[in-house]
Design goal:
4 strands, 38% helix, 2 domains, Rossmann fold, two-stranded antiparallel sheet, alpha+beta
Length: 143
């Protein structure tokens, strides 16, 4: 929970980690925000310690600063594991071993972040556009 930056919130709840993540089926459950729920799900994935993880838009409800922090923590913890990220937000790609860029259901580009940036293709264009909205550290492609 600490690594997903949700520990303080969970510890503040009366039932702590035993709290249901919805009050739809459990009257004592809690309705979390989208960002909090994503952090809880990421904490569960990290706790399970599976050799393969599939993360579909894992930080879409987080702001860019929180997103960067989560990805940096996740990168440290995912060493030796296979993780497949599905995302339209490219902040996560800088630490990926391999990026497969799809367009209209077809593989258009394949490589590391640095390789794809040097190709100056569709991936590089999209990364540059998105990096305008990242914080200075996350958007610097020369890092």
């Amino acid at each position: 929970m600490r690594l997903a930056d949700i520990e303080e919130k969970i510890c503040s709840l009366p039932r702590k980690e035993k709290t249901s993540v919805t009050n739809f089926l459990d009257k004592d459950g809690v309705s979390f925000s989208g960002g909090e729920l994503q952090r809880i799900l990421l904490a569960r994935a990290l706790y399970k310690d599976a050799p393969l993880l599939l993360l579909d838009e894992p930080t879409s409800a987080l702001d860019p600063l929180a997103e960067t922090a989560v990805y940096e923590q996740y990168h440290r913890l995912s060493q030796g594991k296979t993780t497949i990220f599905i995302s339209h937000r490219l902040a996560s790609t800088k630490f990926c071993d391999r990026i497969i860029y799809y367009e209209n259901g077809q593989v258009k580009e394949d490589g590391t972040h640095d390789e794809l940036m040097k190709e100056n293709g569709a991936y590089a264009g999209m990364f540059e556009i998105q990096s305008q909205y990242y914080n200075e550290k996350g958007g610097d492609s020369d890092e």
